[in-house]
Write a structure and sequence with these properties.
It contains eleven helices and ten strands. The protein is an alpha/beta fold and 315 residues long. The strands form two sheets. A six-stranded mixed beta sheet has the order 1-2-10-7-8-9, with helices on both faces. A four-stranded parallel beta sheet has the order 5-4-3-6, sandwiched between helices. α2 crosses α6, α3 packs parallel to α4 and α10 packs across α11.
């Protein structure tokens, strides 16, 4: 498998300029791991991308797609575990485009409500992301709407790659970046930007090891789709477009358990008042659990990528 030439740093930089008026430059928080139970001091940077419009990094890919492709009268359609659907719905609302979003039944109520709040037509399509994707493809065939894929589409990867550029702009001396993996659009776009200039560590739930299984097989293959993070990190296969990038530029995945993800969620809230959904806390789980131990000279950034959860309630 070869890397698609469209997935270039030059195109990512062009996309960043295009979507910049529509997205937030999210902040960096520097923490000391002693505040999270570590015995020795260890500075780590957290990229707070969960503060992005629609509650996750997905807005970057959504705006890139809608601003670079011709939109038919029928509008756009997306299949999603929740975050991609919310992002497409948000971008469509801002750009005055009709949107229909297909989600599986495992989608969290917080994500479903967010999609509805942006004015999109929400459809429950089956129990897993693959079911929602199939339902969306049937709708595309009959309606003529434009499909916006959650992770396996050039525009989506290019848009997510703008996050890599933003992190490098803010942390030029970073050596290591921990990124949660579902379908791979985020880590693939980031890998397309950095091209080996930093160590990119993939982190997956052990109940949804899509990239782990692909590395073992040498190509994308069906993997289990369970885990506490199933509404954001559990597609059937890793993306075809991102896999050559992962083979060349991404470290073999670190697998974390549901208990470790839950512990990371709780620790982020207790130690930094960060509310992260399970998928958003997965990369931090690798560090907190000791599944990933940085070297002495590593300058580590952990991407906290989503916060569409009702874990904290104010009523």
């Amino acid at each position: 498998m070869t890397i698609d030439p469209s997935l270039s740093p030059e195109r990512i930089a062009e996309a960043e300029t295009l979507i910049r008026p529509h997205i937030r430059h999210t902040p960096i928080m520097r923490i000391d791991m002693r505040d999270f139970g570590a015995a020795a001091p260890r500075e780590v940077d957290l990229k707070l991308e969960f503060m992005q419009h629609s509650g996750s990094f997905k807005a970057r890919g959504a705006f890139t797609s809608l601003l670079t492709r011709e939109i038919p009268e029928a509008g756009v359609v997306a299949a999603s575990g929740g975050n991609h659907g919310a992002a497409v719905a948000y971008a469509a609302m801002r750009l005055d485009v009709p949107a229909k979003i297909f989600v599986p039944s495992v989608t969290s109520p917080a994500k479903a409500e967010r999609i509805r709040s942006y004015g999109a037509d929400l459809v429950i399509g089956g129990d897993r992301y693959a079911d929602a994707l199939a339902a969306s493809e049937t709708y595309v065939a009959t309606s003529g709407a434009l499909a916006i894929h959650a992770y396996d589409q050039v525009e989506t990867l290019v848009g997510q790659g703008t996050l890599g550029k933003e992190i490098e702009d803010d942390l030029p001396h970073m050596t290591t970046l921990l990124v949660a993996v579902g379908g791979g659009g985020l880590i693939g776009g980031i890998a397309a930007w950095f091209r080996g200039r930093v160590k990119i560590v993939a982190v997956e739930p052990d109940g949804a090891p899509t990239l782990h299984e692909a590395f073992k097989a040498g190509s994308p293959v069906d993997a289990p789709a369970g885990s506490i993070a199933a509404d954001s990190l559990a597609p059937r296969q890793i993306g075809q477009l991102m896999f050559p990038l992962a083979q060349k530029y991404v470290q073999p995945p670190v697998l974390v358990t549901d208990d470790e993800i839950l512990a990371a969620q709780k620790a982020l809230w207790a130690g930094a008042r960060i509310v992260a959904e399970p998928g958003g806390a997965t990369a931090f789980a690798a560090l907190l659990s000791g599944k990933y131990v940085p070297g002495t000279d590593e300058r580590v950034c952990v991407l906290v990528c989503g916060a569409n959860t009702t874990a904290v309630k104010f009523d």
